[in-house]
Design brief:
- With 675 residues, this protein is of the alpha/beta class.
- The strands form 8 sheets. It has a 7-stranded mixed sheet, sandwiched between helices. Strands 24-25-27-28-29-26 form a 6-stranded mixed sheet, covered by helices on one side. Strands 9-8-7-10-11 form a 5-stranded parallel sheet, with helices on both faces.
- The longest helix is centred in the N-terminal third of the chain and has 25 residues.
- The radius of gyration is 30 Å and the shape is globular.
């Protein structure tokens, strides 16, 4: 007998009782037993807060991102072990890759985003500085810092690898430790995942804990600094959301629940068109991948009334080719449901759906199975129904398996109304070649959806599909779908952080954020381009100029660049321009002159100028004006595992009267040490 273990308070824990048996979804054989008896939930949370949190907060975003990348690479080397166990959940190799490779891909994606979009720092600065007084001495800035608690992550059975990793990655990148609680049916696969992670030795102690079995009194001990993220049924989400400790402590609670996702076929997509074929293929894929056990699968397939029979015939023909059976058998395209109990739940839901329609393909009680026993394993046939969209059942009952219902519509307004009757969905799709139809549907159904895919011949080859959440995009939805958001790129990271408005003087605000702000002290002396990253400080500055702009300069720039816009070359037309009232210098001439003024030409620590950002031309420059530029070190970002870093400079170009004519950020790469 194999008893699954938990990993809490820095060590593995094996329950003292025999546990509950978990069975192979294909053969019915016992795989392992599960129990969390003896786990001190309060101590586990305390360990995460006391050990895991401080260790993570010592690391910068970039250092955490590097660890995520290393972890992803480590897990990729052990995929075969995960695939082998995944097959016991009823998953085909394709299903397993969807789960395992998808989860690893989330780690890689968050590693990349952390390096590209977050600072190499422990504090995140959000938005622009807000001036609060006329004199510029009282400012405000929003910052985000990691919560000082634990991210409790309660996962569903259908994605035992991808589910934990997509919650863990943004929490880890934010600097918040995780406690993972998997669903029992497939917990043996999540236990293997956690074992691989812990044994890698890559993560700080306490940054990942794992409770295998009942959650017991876990939620009794959460505080206002903890977070709870749940994936599962809407009814369970409702119960957890109302837990006294969650309510009392205003614990951040995120739910991603089952939903009646829809796909809408456009009226232009007649049989024989590419869009018709795309719709049929996508629907069959969503019904059969993971045996339809996806919270994003298509449950309601809306089609123009006149195309209902055509779609039913085409989908049935493709479903007839789907081989159901043991994932290890050749040719099998759809495996088993996660458990016999899950099969019975699907059958019960189907009876409710049949009250509002009829089955046009499949038999919920019988299925031909390859390489396995149809009754010992949790096998069921793909089921396609035709339903009445005016009835409540198709919009309220979800059969969490390979089940979808075709529903006819006759107008744009009608199908938008039908889609809304699902009362909130994770994902929807529109398959059409008509951009106007696509626009109407997207804008009409968006309030009820977390994500929408518009599929056509332009994007079909690269599309990741209706049911594939992407780490760059929000995963969640309103209403029935749980009302939450997961992933969404950096949005998911910020969910684990506290946003705080800091009001202070420029000097203090610069010290808090690690970024120079206007009004903070500047330090002039050695030209800052002569300083390595080790020597450079926020506020280091150079003032250069003045340089007069002549008519000859403007004429030469126009001829040399080919930019002969009338405001630079035609005195009469320029005089008639209400913004200029005469010849003005090119904006890029101003920027070029500014660079010539502040540059330090000799070889030194500055390796390259790699861009300008936030460029604005504020005051026209006319021949005879004199330009002065003030360049100030604004932000320093060392790169991990490189001998250079990025420096952001504030550039302010002013005229003889002190008015700013251009403002922008200059981005450079600078050596960490003098060569």
């Amino acid at each position: 007998m194999t008893l699954l273990r938990s990993h809490v308070s820095g060590s593995w824990h094996t329950a003292s009782d025999e546990g509950t048996p978990l069975r192979d979804a294909v053969t019915g054989e016992e795989v392992a037993r599960i129990s969390s008896t003896g786990v001190d939930m309060a101590a586990a949370l305390d360990y995460g807060r006391r050990v895991g949190g401080p260790a993570l907060r010592e690391l910068t975003f970039h250092q955490r991102a590097a660890l995520l990348k290393a972890l992803a690479s480590h897990l990729r080397e052990h995929r075969e072990e995960l695939y082998a166990l995944s097959a016991r959940t009823g998953a085909t190799l394709g299903d397993s890759k969807f789960d395992v490779d998808g989860g690893i891909g989330v780690l890689f994606a968050y590693s990349s985003k952390g390096k590209r979009e977050l600072p190499n720092d422990t504090v995140y600065v959000e938005g622009d500085v807000e001036p609060l007084g006329k004199g510029g001495t009282f400012l405000a800035q929003h910052i985000a810092t990691p919560l000082r608690g634990v991210a409790v992550q309660i996962n569903a059975f259908n994605f035992p690898v991808w589910g934990p990793l997509e919650k863990f990655a943004p929490a880890f990148l934010a600097g918040v430790p995780s406690l993972v609680k998997p669903a029992s049916q497939t917990a043996y696969l999540t236990e293997k995942l956690v074992e691989l992670i812990i044994d890698s030795g890559l993560l700080p102690d306490g940054s990942l804990q794992f409770v295998c079995g009942s959650a017991g009194d876990l939620l009794d001990h959460v505080t206002g600094q903890d977070l709870v993220s749940f994936t599962g049924s809407a009814s369970t989400a409702q119960k957890l959301r109302a837990h006294p400790a969650i309510v009392r402590n205003s614990v951040r609670f995120n739910a991603e629940a089952d939903s009646l996702n829809c796909s809408i076929l456009g009226p232009d997509a007649n049989p024989g068109t590419p869009e018709f074929d795309l719709y049929v293929k996508q629907l069959v894929t969503e019904m059969t991948v993971k045996a339809g056990q996806k919270c994003t699968a298509i449950r309601r397939a809306f089609v123009p009334a006149e195309l209902l029979d055509d779609v039913a015939e085409a989908v049935s023909a493709r479903l007839a080719k789907v081989v159901v059976g043991n994932p290890s058998s050749e040719g099998v395209r759809m495996g088993a449901l996660a458990s016999l109990e899950q099969r019975e739940e699907v059958r019960r839901s189907l009876k409710a759906l049949q009250a509002a329609g009829s089955i046009v393909f499949g038999d919920p009680e019988r299925v031909e199975v390859t390489g396995a026993d149809a009754e010992r394993g949790a096998f069921i046939s793909p089921i396609l129904l035709k339903g009445d969209p005016e009835r409540a059942e198709p919009h309220e009952v979800e059969a969490f398996g390979p089940v979808s219902t075709l529903l006819p519509y006759t107008s744009v307004e009608q199908v938008i109304g039908y889609a809304a009757r699902g009362e909130g969905s994770l994902a929807g799709s529109i398959v059409t070649g008509d951009t106007e139809f696509a626009r109407e549907i997207v804008l009409g159904v968006a309030p009820w959806h977390g994500r929408l895919l518009v599929l056509d011949t332009d994007d079909a080859k690269e599309s990741t599909g209706h049911g594939s959440p992407m780490p760059q995009l929000v995963h969640g939805g309103p209403g029935r779908a749980g009302g939450g958001e997961e992933m969404g790129g950096i949005r998911g990271v910020l969910h684990h952080m506290q946003r705080t408005a800091v009001q202070a003087s420029p000097r203090v605000l610069s010290a808090v954020t690690g970024r120079w702000v206007v009004g903070a002290p500047r330090a002039e002396g050695v030209h800052p381009f002569r300083k390595s990253l080790a020597e450079l400080k926020i506020g280091d500055s150079v003032v250069a100029g003045p340089r007069q702009v002549t008519k000859a300069d403007v004429d030469h720039f126009a001829e040399f660049t080919g930019d002969t816009f009338y405001a630079h070359t035609d005195p009469e037309a320029a005089a008639a321009n209400p913004l200029f009232g005469g010849i003005v210098a090119h904006g890029y001439l101003v920027v070029s002159f500014a660079a010539g003024l502040f540059v330090s030409p000799e070889p030194g620590p500055v390796l390259a100028n790699y861009g300008l950002e936030n460029l604005r031309f504020l005051t026209p420059v006319k021949p005879g004006d004199e330009l002065t530029v003030t360049l100030t070190c604004k932000q320093i970002t060392p790169r991990e595992n490189a001998d250079y870093g990025e420096v952001r400079w504030d550039a302010d170009v002013t005229n003889a009267t002190g008015d700013s004519v251009a403002k922008y950020d200059v981005l450079t790469l600078v050596s960490k040490e003098d060569s």
